Amino acid sequence: MSFGSVYLFIPLQNPPNKATHAENHIMTKKWPVSSLSRALSRAYTTTTATTTASFPLKKVTRSNFETALKELKKLVRAADFVAIDLEMTGVTSAPWRESFEFDRYDVRYLKVKDSAERFAVVQFGVCPFRWDPLKDSFIAHPHNIFVFPRRELPIDGPSYEFLCQTTSMDFLAKYQFDFNVCISEGVSYLSRKQEDEALRHMKSLHDEESLHSLCYLKEIRDIPSMSMADILFTERMKSKLSEWREGLVRNVKGGAQFHEGLNDSKQQYQTIFFKMRPALVLKEFTSHQLRLIQLVTKKHFNNLVYVRVNGENSCSQQLAVYTDSEEDKDLFMKEMKDENRRAAEMRITAAIGFRHVIDLLSSEQKLIVGHNCFLDFAHVYHKFFGPLPSTAEEFVSSVNKYFPHIIDTKILLNASNCLLQRMKKSSTSLSSAFSSLCPQIALGSKSSGLAFTPCVKVEVQVDNMRSSNWNSGSKHEAGYDAFMTGCVFAQSCSYLGIDFKLQLPSEKLADNEKLQKQLNLLYLSWSSGEIIDLGTGDRTAESVSCNLKKRYPKILFENIVLVWGFPSKLKAREIRECISKVFGATAVVSVYHIDETAVFVQFHEAESVSDFLSLKETLERKNDPISVFHPLSKLLEGGNTHAASYETYKEICSSPISKVLFADQAEAVGIKWKTKLVESVVVETKEQESFLGAVVDTESDCAEETKTMDSLLRLWCR
């Protein structure tokens, strides 16, 4: 059996992370050879602005991120809307976590949550669009930002981990994704929660501990037993420090001018000024010797303070600083405390990295445009805000707080017959929509001389280069996909009757009445056509769902039984036949394989769920000849078959564990029972036996034959 995917686990000290697929297919600290070797062999480039097939695109890495961010702030503030797109290292951590028609909305959210928590975002496309009334066209500024979760702060904690799904990685490699640039030059980030934790850590370090801790030194104690060499060294250092201090005092009392750079012959000591105070630089000592020096200054010199500071090139420097009074010493300690706090804050601010872009989009409250972007916003929330909420309702409420104006172009396309007609009922994928609605833009320079329906004009500007003539860009590169998304949105608005020429500068596109019915609606599940409103949390199955080719009749979750662990040779048809022999030919509506180890069985009546579970539990408990020859015995063969209602499926999906096979997942979650009844009502043994006898052989309508079979079974049992 092949699922078309292998998952690689890659723990990060600085590089990538985690993955799994079929226990015997797990690889550690290796990229998928077939897909990544080609990509990693490409030459490493660091150009600031690049062209992909002559399409102007701003490539952003950590080497030019600070400059690009300053420019992006201006562009976003001036934009009418901002289109985004993400590239990830995978989508599903196991085949059974894929999106199914049988997924209820809360289960669908749990699967999206699992995906966002396990996979990494490696590229983020941001494309501000601004209407230029002088040229009657939009000016697009596509940015292709490489992102990588590198640890930038020296804070204790687990290293970053993420999954890599080989089908996704091969897909990226196919479209020339540069893994070298991503890993080496990708912009790192901190979520808001991680920033808060770092600030709390800094506060505890700089507000509650001593100066020594502020300078990254532990409070030391007397060494209980020192060697003779240690004793001699401490005495020598005591003498040296005393001599140095007395020399300073004599110079001050005698009115002599202090000179920097008074060195000894071995260059082991050097006198400098540090924060307007004389200080002795301590060079070429071992860490143990420095600890002894710290002990000496602490015990014998009230007016000397031992500190460790970061010098040039991040090299630490050990100093013994002279303070001429207790007040001066307190002042010096405060100065050091403030300096270390400011330095730590600067490091944290720098470590925020790419999240500055997300904060910009949130604070400016611009209209954000994506394409089928529910998963995208789950990634945005998890990576840049904090842990994902446990329910879909909490999630959409939080997203709406940070991004109050969102348009999904897939919603927009499917909600308008006008747009569907323009697309000639073709696929509503991003590339299809772009080709159908924006042919002049999609073809670029190749469109000259061809006849097209007039469409919204778009020019592209990168740095100081502005162009309206280019070859088509590289699809599935986040910056270009964001550009395509924005173009589809602009053209859709035009077809819906929005005239950008009449739009006043003070008017917000998000407030346009023609967009209100689609504003803040996202597909919770594209396979079922279920839509969720970010503003209210309400869910609807829009008429758009009729455009989807459904394989199954209306799904009633209270009518569904989850069955797993049955013999692997059984297929959906055989499982249906087993159950139909007992409950009747029309009792089962459909049987849906989750994977080779589990199925959903939807009954026509909700009562059949409890009847099936009760019967299964009785057959397994009795294990008598009647049970052995019962039609369900084929399903129960092997003794590992489990069954429960749909709620157990939700429970299993909510687990952070992710095994490849559903049966293994259920076991890993800790499910030991074989049958979970819908109601905790104990059925009388007499009633169970009566029901069991009634369904021994529903293929025969003759009660006499049933009695004969019972007699034969009892006789065989003797």
UniProtKB/TrEMBL annotation:
UniProt cofactor(s): a divalent metal cation
GO molecular function, one term: 3'-5'-RNA exonuclease activity
Domain of life: Eukaryota
Pfam families: CAF1
Record-stated family: Belongs to the CAF1 family.
Protein known as: CAF1 domain-containing protein
Organism annotation: Cephalotus follicularis
